[in-house]
Write a structure and sequence with these properties.
Layout lengths: L1 H51 L2 H4 L1 H19 L4 H28 L1 H12 L2 H4 L1 H19 L3 H40 L2 H4 L1 H20 L4 H30 L4 H18 L11 H45 L2 H27 L8 E5 L2 E5 L17 H12 L6 E6 L6 H23 L6 E7 L10 H7 L1 E7 L6
Parallel strand pairs: 3-4
Antiparallel strand pairs: 1-2, 2-5, 3-5
Helix pairs in contact: 1-4, 3-4, 5-8, 7-8, 8-10, 8-11, 10-11, 12-13
Length: about 500
């Protein structure tokens, strides 16, 4: 019996030691993660700024040196090397990045037309639809940028027209393949369903727009943007014609469904009207409720302008308060002044925490997740989604962005950073540009609707470089495709 008790005690001791070891390992891993975030934070921010300034193409040699040192620092941290050595390498990374940013200023002047041509090629998704042409343009650009880094300005400027031409050729080919090709297929589909018979006006307009797009691309190579607009309009009209044709055929086959067809439209209008605070009647058709909806929308726009004016007045009051506080601090001396300042800071901290909690309560679980990172608040907009390869914000998402506006107004003097992220599918350069375009779309929406100063809000595109989940599963990729709104509180006075 004694031997059995000893054996059991030994087994329990082993279990306890194993549990304690696993717990310690977990805590250690968490602490290592926090330590890495602290050590790399400033360098990561500078790296993101450098990427947004396109230093990877404007100062490729310095940027490569910066990335090499950065990757070495990450490996050293992973392998448990001395922090002093890691911090030294990160300091070298920041030196290279600052050199990149200086070189980028000259590069943006020298390559102004080239950057525009490259941006247009990326928007047309040339890395996918005209990969060989786009890569040739990239190689020529990088080679010339290296010459500029070495001070060969004259030779770099001489090469600019040729590089521009390569990017424009890649863009043109991508437009033809991606947009014109898709519209041609839609027009063929429209003809097959007899859209030319059931929706002749819209079908004819789609055909006209497609012909105009093709004519522009074939005769005026400087009007790619105009051709793209024509092709997109033709695509929308072709889809419209197909929809009307299918709807008409269905109603002809089910002629007793006309009433339900009209009622469905009325239900949609009624739902919008109720959201705006009135119950519509349809005794005179749809015009009367639609006109009232339009009037209420105009009233809401006017109300928004008044709110923006009120916010500007409040901001002026806050700036005055800041001056008053500064004057008070300059006048007060001694222990009493120090005590008062401590009380003030505690009160400001409490107010800040109260405001942060109020922001957390603004969002539903499916809309956003609130995170804290040092003095930063991160609003991860899990409910803000974009179409594949698109950066257009759909109207149904305006309500979520209105909540974001309310959250930002809680911190009227804090800098705002809009961070765009993608998954790893597709070309990395396209993903980086797409993430920046999406962040810029959110930035432009906030600027247009809040009256913010341009200098207060920044848009950064990280592409696929900062995943928060695995890219091996659709669920993980969905999490990685995200927009983060970062509010930097710093020493804000509330």
């Amino acid at each position: 019996m004694t031997a059995l008790i000893k054996a059991n005690l030994k087994n329990w001791a082993l279990v306890f030691l194993a549990t304690a070891f696993l717990f310690s390992a977990t805590v250690f891993a968490q602490n290592r993660g926090d330590l890495q975030e602290t050590i790399f934070r400033n360098t990561d921010k500078l790296l993101a700024l450098a990427r947004s300034e396109q230093v990877s193409i404007l100062s490729p040699s310095n940027f490569k040196n910066a990335l090499d040192k950065y990757n070495q620092a990450q490996r050293d941290f992973k392998n448990g090397k001395q922090l002093k050595k890691i911090e030294k390498k990160l300091s070298e990374v920041r030196t290279y990045l600052n050199q990149c940013l200086d070189a980028a200023k000259l590069g943006k002047i020298t390559f102004e037309s080239t950057l525009k041509a490259r941006e247009d090629a990326l928007k047309a998704n040339a890395p996918q639809y005209a990969e060989e042409q786009f890569n040739l343009a990239e190689q020529a650009f990088l080679s010339t940028a290296k010459k500029l880094e070495k001070g060969d300005i004259k030779n770099a400027r001489r090469r600019v027209p040729g590089i521009d031409q390569k990017y424009r050729a890649a863009e043109l080919n991508a437009i033809k393949i991606s947009i014109i090709g898709n519209v041609r297929n839609l027009m063929k589909q429209a003809k097959e369903v007899e859209a030319n018979k059931y929706s002749p006006i819209i079908y004819a307009n789609a055909r006209k727009l497609l012909n105009e797009a093709e004519a522009i691309l074939n005769t005026n190579r400087r009007s790619e943007t105009s051709a793209k607009e024509k092709a997109e309009a033709a695509e929308a009209e072709a889809k419209h014609a197909i929809f009307i044709t299918r709807q008409t055929k269905w109603l002809k086959k089910n002629d007793k469904e006309w009433e339900n067809f009209m009622l469905d439209r009325e239900i949609i209008i009624e739902a919008i009207a109720r959201e705006l605070g009135f119950t519509p009647t349809f005794d005179d058709g749809l015009d009367k409720p639609l006109k009232r909806i339009a009037q209420i929308s105009r009233n809401l726009q006017n109300e928004k302008k008044e709110l923006i004016k009120e916010v500007e007045e409040k901001n002026a009051e806050l700036r005055k308060l800041d001056k008053d506080i500064l004057a008070y601090r300059e006048k007060e001396q001694g222990l009493q002044a120090e005590l008062q300042e401590k009380r003030y800071k505690l009160e400001m901290k409490k107010r800040r925490e109260d405001r942060i909690r109020s922001v957390e309560e603004m969002f539903a679980a499916q809309e956003a997740v609130m995170l804290r990172q040092g003095d930063d608040i991160i609003i991860r907009l899990i409910g803000l989604t974009f179409g594949s390869g698109k950066s257009t914000i759909e109207p149904e998402l305006f309500r979520l962005l209105s909540t974001v506006q309310r959250a930002i107004r809680k911190f009227p003097s804090s800098p705002i950073t809009i961070e765009g992220h993608t998954d790893s599918r597709g070309d990395a350069r396209f993903n980086e540009n797409l993430s920046y375009e999406r962040a810029m779309a959110v930035k432009q929406y906030l600027l247009a609707n809040m009256g913010l100063e341009q200098s207060r809000i920044t848009a950064l595109g990280y592409g696929e470089s900062k995943p928060i989940a695995t890219n091996e599963t659709s669920e993980g990729r969905s999490k990685n495709r995200r927009i983060d709104v970062v509010i930097s509180l710093g020493q804000e006075v509330l």
